[in-house]
Specification:
The chain has nine helices and five strands.
């Protein structure tokens, strides 16, 4: 007898969840739970799930990062998959080597996703080769665990109460670039919110070499 596994889809799109409910339970022998982003943590703690699938077309990257951190910290053994992963925004900071099982770009077809998820069910990963290689290049950098100069600048700016847009204007970059620097810094210093980052910076920034 085949064992039915439980997956959770975190999305604001009812159309997507309805579409997947028509295909995946039969294709993968899974039971699907649909969760709004604000409900994920509660539902995940009350129901057994082996995988959480984030729809990045409807879940903000910052919120997805925070939810991914919850999975990492509190749900050992649960793997994560990202659908509609952006190509134009550097979102590699979302991917955690111990939990992320699959990444599918915005132009991936349901057939491509199905093939990748079959690999995940076999215990393998379904991360695009180019993305995987770029992650390995970052991880092999001797300074990968250190805050970059720009990340330090952004953390310093947080202490002054500036918004992301204010910081972007100050540094002559886009607001999305500032978000990327923040998420990378968050992962390096082990925090998951702006308030925690500010508290960390107040204690540690004077110890960081610039």
């Amino acid at each position: 007898m085949f064992k039915v596994v439980n997956w959770m889809i975190v999305s604001r799109s009812q159309m997507l969840t309805d579409l997947l409910e028509c295909r995946w339970p039969q294709e993968f022998l899974v039971k699907l739970t649909n969760a709004h982003p604000c409900e994920m943590a509660k539902l995940l703690s009350t129901s057994p799930n082996s995988m959480v699938i984030f729809d990045l077309a409807t879940v903000d990257v910052q919120q997805a990062y925070q939810l991914q951190r919850i999975v990492e910290r509190e749900h050992c053994g649960v793997r994560t998959v990202f659908l509609n992963f952006p190509k134009q925004v550097d979102a590699k900071f979302l991917i955690h080597p111990s939990t992320t099982a699959g990444v599918f770009y915005v132009d991936a077809s349901l057939k491509d996703i199905g093939i990748g998820l079959n690999e995940v069910l076999k215990g393998r990963s379904a991360i695009p080769q180019t993305l995987y290689q770029s992650m390995m290049n970052v991880d092999n950098d001797d300074d990968s665990d250190q805050l970059t100069i720009r990340e330090r600048e952004v953390l310093h700016a947080l202490l002054t109460g500036r918004t992301n847009l204010d910081i972007a204007n100050q540094l002559f970059v886009s607001e999305s670039t500032i978000k990327t620097h923040l998420y990378r810094a968050f992962r390096k210093i082990g925090v998951s919110s702006r308030g925690q980052a500010i508290a960390w910076a107040q204690t540690h920034m004077h110890e960081v070499r610039v």
